[in-house]
Specification:
- There is one protein chain.
- By secondary structure, this protein is mainly alpha-helical.
- 86% of the residues lie in helices and 0% in strands.
- It is built from three helices and no strands.
- Helix 1 runs antiparallel to helix 2.
- The longest helix is centred in the first third of the chain and has 41 residues.
- Belongs to the ATPase C chain family.
- It is a multi-pass membrane protein.
- Its main location: membrane.
- Keywords: ATP synthesis, Cell membrane, CF(0), Hydrogen ion transport, Ion transport, Lipid-binding, Membrane, Transmembrane, Transmembrane helix, Transport.
């Protein structure tokens, strides 16, 4: 097995782990935030608009982590800086 094949295999494995962890943790956080938002609206229905607005802002921030993970995985797969070291 040549070095280019090893680099490609490690890149694919690393991208898979990156997107798995980077997708799992933000989705768990969003689920917990949604649970707390629903509980808060149930306790204080007059504050529902403010609670929902804060939930959407928090969900957007948490979702950005998943998007960063996707970008990192795509960079690892398609713009790996270590490929050029072994293709000479």
């Amino acid at each position: 097995m040549d070095s280019l094949t090893i680099i490609a295999a490690v890149s694919i494995f690393t991208a898979g782990i990156t997107i798995a962890i980077g997708g799992m943790m933000p989705s768990r956080g969003e689920g917990e935030a949604l649970t707390k938002a629903i509980e808060s609206v149930a306790r204080q229905p007059e504050q529902a608009n403010q609670i929902i607005r804060l939930f959407f802002i928090g969900a957007a921030v948490v979702e950005s982590v998943a998007i960063y993970s996707l970008v990192i995985a795509l960079i690892i797969l398609f713009a790996n800086p270590f490929i050029h070291l072994f293709t000479k």
